[in-house]
Amino acid sequence: MKSNDIKRTSGNTLTRRSFVKATVTAAMAGASCDLSLAGSSLSSSAVQFSANPSKPNIVFILADDLGYGSLNSYGADKKLIRTPHIDRIANAGMSFTDAYAPASICTPTRYSFVTGRYTWRTELKAGVVNPRDPLLPDPNRATIASWLKERGYNTAMIGKWHLGYGDKTPVNLTGKLSPGPLDLGFTYHFSVPQNHGDKWGVYVENDRVYGLRSERLQPYSKTFYGTQYVGLDAPQRVNKKVMGDLTDKSVEWLKQQSREKPFFLYYAPVAVHHPITPSNKMRGMSDAGPYGDFIQDLDMSVGRLIETLEYMNLMDNTLIIFTSDNGGDIPGTDGQRPEDQAIKLGLRINGDLRGDKHTIYEGGTRIPFIVSWPGKVKSGTVSNDMISIMDIFATVCEITDGKLPDSKDIAPDSFSFLPSLMQAENKHERPSLVTSDVRGRQALRKGNWKYIDNTSGQGENLGRPQLYDLVKDPSETTDMYDQKPEIAKRLADELDRIRQAQATR
Q1: SS3 helix, strand, coil % of the chain, rounded to 5?
Q2: Contact 121/455 with Cβ under 8 angstroms?
Q3: SS3 of 490, please?
Q4: How far apart are CA 304 and CA 402, in angstroms?
Q5: CB neighbour list of residue 421: distance below 8 Å, 6 or more residues apart
Q6: Chain-wide mean pLDDT for the chain?
Q7: Exposure b/e, 240-265, CB count within 10 A at least 16 = b
């Protein structure tokens, strides 16, 4: 898919027909017509939003390393992979073409989602939280979970956490893992503590290692990354069963919910982060090798959540957001990794975007982003408004309270995209957006332009700055820094102002 093939229409909103025509083959477009998620409950036109509505249930699904071109609704060829359940969300709601992860790596994105704040405002200027690091979010700072909990929501975080536990380094894995998610407003927590295939090798439930039998440690074997497992005396995760385990826990928690009290589920599946370990049920089902199978495992997991909500008759008041924590990972080392094999078979993991996970380029930070909300968001629509995962917090604030928080300490860098969802004429659009890479290098997106700074999070010089016109050159092939020095300086100055400020909202 080429981003410059997507035609803009009045109001910065595309029709589903034009988006599909620009991104998917005619056969795929025809096959998607019967996949409506909410059926007749979706109105034929956008519903005007009013303050203080009944509080919707919220299900936020954050995939891991899923690239911009890895869904059928974003251009992936159905001859290679099939994502019917995620596509149902797209057909029932709105897809965004200019949605971003705050960073091209995991921890910063997850922190920014939970807090509505840029991660580089903390002590973490680059990289991710390590396996034995303490909790990164400050328990005294408002989070999206604590906000919703205060407004009567049941809240749960199930899946990959990767934000640390405790307040000391190294964290005592056999003790109480506090402060942690329960101190941030989540009433239930079940997680893969760091990464799929991490050295913990176990699950965490609430504030303890799940099923911990004793404090004994027996280090054994090695992980996918070459590090030794901790050897905790608890049930060990089986990689190919992790997606199923996390889905089971999510379904189990959803079944405990009802119409009497709204709920918020933050579900973070491990797919499609390596090691690539598709389930027995999905293995060999795609035509893009194990990597394609793992994408389809993700889709099957999403389908089970949707099915549960439908059987419980909760879909009509449930807001679903599906996205990814960063772009797809393309190892490109020996060419034998599942990701490389999928590319050889024709899967364009990040579409036509330059770069991948870890990098500062669009392939690292531009992500699929889909929202379904029956009766509120018009079905089958596409928006090219620029938004960030970080903006979910402010959007939820506006949905639940009818306005944004008065305090700038709450979601300080988050902008509501509710006007985009409602297709409102008078939008409060995000003026600019900062993204970063694994080394803490930052880029500023503003309008058509993207300015890339030349320093790391530790102040190291990384060469020269860069400037790209993303409307004319979405694949970032032509650096315009020398041709447009006045634009580069203006963006560099704005980036400095944002860094020095305590809030951008």
Answers
A1: 30, 15, 55
A2: no
A3: helix
A4: 32
A5: 94, 371, 373, 376, 377, 395
A6: 90
A7: bebbbbbbebbbebbeebeeeebbbb
Helix H or strand E segment including 363: helix 362-365
CATH superfamily of 11-21+53-431: Alkaline Phosphatase, subunit A (3.40.720.10)
Decide yes or no: CATH 3.30.1120.10 for domain 441-500: yes
pLDDT digits (tens, 9 = 90+) for 69-117: 999 999 999 999 999 999 999 999 999 999 999 999 999 999 999 999 9
Detail the DSSP E strand segments found in 223-343.
228-229, 263-268, 318-324
Give the CA distances from residue 441 to residues 358, 368, 436, in Å, rounded to whole numbers and listed in that order: 10, 22, 5
Written as six digits, the tokens of 373 are 């909300």
Contacting residues for 134 by C-beta, under 8 A, at least 6 apart: 164, 165, 166, 167, 168, 169, 171
Cα gap 416→427, rounded to integer Å: 10
Residue 342: name the closest of 276, 396, 406 by CA.
276
Q: Is residue 169 packed enough to be buried (19+ CB in 10 Å), middle (13-18) or exposed (0-12)? A: exposed
- Spatial neighbors of 105 by CB under 8 A, at least 6 apart, are 127, 128, 326, 357, 358, 437, 438
Give the CA radius of gyration of the chain: 21
Could you state, in order of their start, the residue ranges of all structural domains in the chain? 11-21+53-431, 441-500
Helix/strand/coil for 205: strand
- Region 149-162: what's the mean pLDDT? 98
At residue 160, what are phi and psi to the nearest 5 degrees? -70, 125
CA dihedral 205, 206, 207, 210 (to 10 degrees): -10
Q: Give tens-digit pLDDT for 211-254.
A: 999 999 999 899 998 999 999 999 999 999 999 999 999 999 99
Structure tokens at 403: 């306005």
Between 184 and 406, name the one with better pLDDT: 184
